[in-house]
UniProtKB/TrEMBL annotation:
This is Bifunctional alpha,alpha-trehalose-phosphate synthase (UDP-forming)/trehalose-phosphatase. One of its GO terms (molecular function) is alpha,alpha-trehalose-phosphate synthase (UDP-forming) activity. Signal peptide: none annotated. One of its GO terms (cellular component) is cytosol. Belongs to the glycosyltransferase 20 family. In the C-terminal section; belongs to the trehalose phosphatase family.
Length: 475
C-alpha cells in the first residue's frame, strides 16, 4: 500500500538526555505543533532529527530512541552528530537561511564549512529516507532546513510525488540574491512536483527568483523542466481548530495555571506567546507596552502584560543575547511603572502545555503578537480559536503571514510603538458587539481552513500535479 512520508528537521517530539534518563517532550514551533495532530490521526510516517546529538547517546540509548520514536510516535529517527548540529542546524540553517529569509540581512553569516554541512546533512536525510521509499509513495518535505532534499530524492526516484512546503517567508528577489549559494538552493527545491508557501507574496518572490536566477518562466504557477513540471502555490497553514475551540479549560489545564487565572482576575490581561526569537519583535513589544503606560496612565494598576516565551535554539549567540535584552527591558518597565501592589510585565521563560496555553488564551483580554517578520504565526489563530466567547481581541503586526487572513484584527506596524500602544487601548475598549462581529468572521475562516484542510489541499494538489508537458510563455 502506498504511504505518505513527512520529512522535516524537527519531529513532533524532542528527545533530551538527563541523569535520570531519556525524556520525550512535545516539540514547539509552528511546523511541529501544526502538523502533530494531523500526523497522529492519519497514517503518515514522519522522518526527522530527534533533537539530541547522536554522540551524546550510547548505542543502547540510540536504538531505544529509534524504537520509541517508531513504535510510539510513527517517526523515523535521522541521527545527527554534534558537529552536524553545530554546523548545519546552528550554522547554515539558523545563522544563514533563517536571518536572510526574515530580512535580517546584517545578521547573516556566510561560511563555506556550514554550507558544506548543509549539503552533507541533507544527504544524510536522503540516506535515511531512501530505504523507506516505494513506488506510489508521496514524500512531503518541510521547511528551510531541507531545501536540497527534493532534488536528491528526484534523482533516485523520478516517479514518486515530491511536495515541499516552506514554513517561513520566501524573501523578495533583492534579498534572496544576496545568498551565495542561491542557484544551488533553488535547484534543490525544483526537484519537487509541488512547492507550497503560506502567502501569495512568497509565491511571487519565489517565482521571480527562479525566473531571474535559473531562467525558468511559469505559466499559471507551473514550470516545465526537462524531467518534470513544478507547480507553485499558496497554502495558508491552519490549526487544529476543534482542539483549541473544544478543549474544556478546567479539566485539562494544570492547577498552577488555574491558580494564575484566579489570581489575575482583577486586572485586564494582555498575553504574548512566542518562541524566543529575534524575528518575533519582543523588545519592540515591551517598549510599545511602556509607551502605552505612559500615554494612558488611567490603565496603570489595571492591566498586565504576560510574556510566555519558550526557550529556542539555545547556544546561538543572537538568541542568548535576546533573553538578556528582554530581561533588562522588563525590569526597566517594572522599575519605572511598578507599584508596591502591581507589576506591569510578567516574563515566564518556559514552555507550557497546549492545554495550559488554551487556559491562558481564554483568560486574556488581548493577544499581542507583533513579529518583525513571520511566515504565518499560528499563535494568532490559536488565540482566536480558543476564545469561543468572542470576547478577546488580537493586536497583530502586518508583517505576520497570518495578517493577510485575519484582517478583522487590529493590525499595526511593529516599528511604530505609538500605533501598538493605541492598538492595545483600542482592543481593551472595543465595544462587545464589534468584537463579537470581528471574532465570528475570523472563527468562520479558521474553522474551515484548519490544518486538516490545509494538509489535504496540499496533498490533493500534489497528487493531481501535472505529469504531461505544459506550455510556458515568457511573461
Ligand atoms: P514559530 O513557528 O516561528 O515558532 P508559530 O506562531 O507559527 O511560530 O508557532 C509557534 C507554536 O509554538 C504555536 O503552536 C505555539 O502554541 C507554540 N508555542 C510558542 N511559544 C510557546 C510556549 N511558550 N509554550 C508552549 N507553546 C508555545
Ligand atoms: C519555525 C520553523 C520550524 C522550526 C520551528 C522551531 O517554526 O519554521 O522549522 O521547527 O521554528 O525551531 P527549531 O529550531 O526548534 O526546530
Amino acid at each position: 500500500m502506498s504511504k505518505t512520508i513527512f520529512v522535516s528537521n524537527r519531529l513532533p517530539v524532542t528527545v533530551s538526555k538527563h541523569e535520570s534518563g531519556l525524556e520525550y517532550k512535545e516539540s514547539i514551533g509552528g511546523l511541529a505543533t501544526g502538523l502533530k495532530n494531523y500526523h497522529e490521526q492519519g497514517s503518515t510516517v514522519w522522518a526527522g532529527w530527534p533533537g539530541v546529538a547522536q554522540d551524546d547517546l550510547s548505542e543502547e540509548e540510540s536504538s531505544s530512541v529509534a524504537d520509541t520514536l517508531r513504535n510510539d510516535y510513527k517517526c523515523l529517527s535521522v541521527p545527527l552528530t554534534s558537529d552536524d548540529i553545530e554546523q548545519y542546524y546552528h550554522g547554515f540553517c539558523n545563522e544563514t537561511i533563517w536571518p536572510l529569509f526574515h530580512y535580517f540581512t546584517s545578521a547573516v553569516e556566510y561560511k563555506k564549512e556550514t554550507w558544506e554541512a548543509y549539503q552533507r546533512v541533507n544527504r544524510k536525510f536522503f540516506d535515511s529516507v531512501d530505504p523507506l521509499i516505494e513506488e506510489g509513495d508521496t514524500i512531503w518535505i518541510h521547511d528551510y532546513q531541507l531545501m536540497l532534499l527534493p532534488q536528491m530524492i528526484r534523482e533516485k526516484h523520478p516517479d514518486v510525488k515530491i511536495g515541499f512546503f516552506l514554513h517561513i517567508p520566501f524573501p523578495s528577489y533583492e534579498i534572496y540574491r544576496q545568498m551565495i549559494w542561491r542557484d544551488e538552493i533553488l535547484q534543490g527545491l525544483m526537484g519537487a512536483n509541488l512547492i507550497g508557501f503560506h502567502t501569495y507574496d512568497y509565491v511571487r518572490h519565489f517565482l521571480s527568483s527562479v525566473r531571474r536566477l535559473l531562467g525558468h518562466e511559469h505559466s499559471l504557477y507551473k514550470m516545465q523542466l526537462e524531467s518534470h513540471v513544478v507547480q507553485v502555490d499558496a497554502f495558508p497553514m491552519g490549526i487544529d481548530y476543534d482542539y483549541f475551540a473544544k478543549t474544556p479549560t478546567k479539566e485539562n489545564a494544570s492547577q498552577e495555571t488555574m491558580d494564575f487565572v484566579k489570581s489575575t482576575q482583577n486586572v485586564r490581561n494582555i498575553i504574548s506567546v512566542d518562541r524566543l526569537d529575534y524575528t518575533k519583535g519582543i523588545p519592540d513589544r515591551i517598549k510599545a507596552f511602556k509607551q502605552f503606560l505612559s500615554n494612558y496612565p488611567e490603565y496603570r494598576e489595571k492591566v498586565r502584560l504576560n510574556l510566555i516565551i519558550a526557550p529556542s535554539r539555545v547556544g546561538i549567540e543572537k538568541y542568548d543575547n535576546l533573553k538578556r535584552e528582554i530581561e533588562e527591558l522588563v525590569s526597566e518597565v517594572n522599575g519605572e511603572y511598578g507599584t508596591f501592589n502591581w507589576m506591569p510585565v510578567w516574563f515566564f521563560f518556559r514552555t507550557v502545555s497546549q492545554d495550559d496555553l488554551i487556559a491562558f488564551y481564554r483568560h486574556s483580554d488581548v493577544l499581542l503578537v507583533t513579529p518583525l517578520r513571520d511566515g504565518m504565526n499560528l499563535v494568532a489563530k490559536e488565540y482566536v480559536a480558543s476564545r469561543t466567547d468572542y470576547k478577546g481581541m488580537l493586536v497583530m503586526s502586518e508583517t505576520a503571514g497570518a495578517a493577510s487572513e485575519l484582517g478583522e484584527a487590529i493590525i499595526v506596524n511593529t516599528n511604530d510603538h505609538e500605533a501598538i500602544a493605541a492598538g492595545i487601548k483600542m482592543a481593551l475598549e472595543m465595544p462587545e458587539d464589534d468584537k463579537m462581529d470581528r471574532n465570528k468572521n475570523m472563527h468562520r475562516r479558521i474553522s474551515r481552513y484548519n490544518v486538516k484542510f490545509w494538509a489535504e489541499e496540499f496533498l490533493n494538489t500534489l497528487q493531481g500535479s501535472p505529469e504531461e508537458k505544459i506550455h510556458t510563455e515568457p511573461l
